[in-house]
Every structure is written in C-alpha cells, then in structure tokens.
Amino acid sequence: MELNFESLPNGVDLINLSGKMDLAGAQQIDLRFNAIAGKSHKVIVNFENVNFLASMGIRTLIMAAKTIQLKGGKMVILKPNADVESVLVGSGTDTFIPIYQDLDTAISSVNI
C-alpha cells in the first residue's frame, strides 16, 4: 500500500492511496495516515487506486475520521471502485465517512 499526501487550497488535505488495504497494507500506512489525521481538519482520502479493502483498512479509516471529527473537522472518501464501495457500504462505514465520486463535490463537503 502506498500513501501520497498533498495540500489543496483552503486547508484541504488530500491523501492518495494505492494498492491493497488489507492487514499488511493498513500496517504500512497506519502511522503516517494517523499523523496526517492528527493535524488536519479537512481530509479527502482518494481511493481511486485501492483495489481491495479489509477490516483492518476500515479500522484505519474510522480511527482517523474519529480523530478529525473530535477536532470539528471532516473526512470523506473519494472514488472507490465498485467492490471497495460495496465493502464500505456493507460495513456501514459510509454512514460515518461519506463517499463522493468527484473531487469538487468532496472538496465542497469538507469546506463546511
């Protein structure tokens, strides 16, 4: 699992993930992902290049989203493929971390 980070205008942080977010993948990015969540208030997690999501990956997402939410911020997921989106919806993760298919809408949703 690879994690690339970039800052967008208006204090929005974009985390680009690629690979499998299984146990090994989640462990590879967990520390860095949580460090970003610890300092950010507006986070978009781009799932466009994530081809697998397991429970440890969901745990990483939820822990980071809770950290951001406790600071009054918001985290959203961008462009998961159909298989990954079905895991997010089936686990109920989408009720806590909204899913968007376009970057402009995702940016608008965290800029509240």
Any overview of this molecule?
The protein has 112 residues and is of the alpha/beta class. It has a single domain, classed as STAS domain (Transcription Regulator spoIIAA, 2-Layer Sandwich), CATH 3.30.750.24. The protein has a 5-stranded mixed beta sheet with strand order 1-2-3-4-5. Helix 1 runs parallel beside helix 2. It is globular and about 30 Å long. The model has no long low-confidence stretch (mean pLDDT 95).
Distance between the termini: 30 Å
Strand arrangement within the widest β-sheet reads: 1-2-3-4-5
Tell me, what is the CATH class? Answer: Alpha Beta
Could you say what the CATH architecture is? 2-Layer Sandwich
The average pLDDT is 95
Helix coverage percent: 40-55%
Order of helices and strands: EEHEHEHEH
Brief write-up:
This protein is 45% helix and 32% strand. With 112 residues, it is α/β, with parallel strands linked by helices.
Essential attributes:
alpha/beta; Transcription Regulator spoIIAA; 32% strand; globular; 112 residues; 4 helices
Structural topology:
Elements lengths: L1 E7 L3 E10 L1 H17 L2 E12 L1 H16 L3 E5 L3 H9 L8 E2 L2 H8 L2
Parallel strand pairs: 2-3, 3-4, 4-5
Antiparallel strand pairs: 1-2
Helix pairs in contact: 1-2
